[in-house]
Amino acid sequence: MDEDSWAHFEEAIFSPLANDDADLAARLSAHFLQRLVGDMSATERADALRWKPPRFEVGVTPSGGRVLGIHFGGRSSVTEWDGTVADAECIVDSFAETSAADIEWDYWVQGGGWKEWKGDAPPTP
Predict the structure, then answer these.
(1) 10, 82, 93, 124: which one has the fewest Cβ atoms less than 10 Å from its Cβ?
(2) Is residue 35 in some structural domain?
(3) Is 60 helix (H, G, I), strand (E, B) or coil?
(4) Which residues contact 89 (CB under 8 A, 6 or more apart)?
């Protein structure tokens, strides 16, 4: 992606997706949470579910491009979006995967999860 595209993303005007399509926002939130915790251990899952649910925003760039913003756990993502449910779910899948890896890392390294590590084998989901 070139630098001009990023500038367009930063200049996008956003509004909550729930204002435009509450059903889609709820569907994407459920999809995100399912993907987020799908491969986590029970303790990682419990830690992840303490976070506030994701917030979705739809934006329009100055050039008229549509973008989907996702905010979760202090992290954000803004991605070009063609407006379809299928594309939104792909965007959500990618962000959920990244968020899951971040949460797992935070839990085991900084969140005290290391205290339960016995050294025998990795924790199982």
Answers:
(1) 124
(2) yes
(3) strand
(4) 28, 31
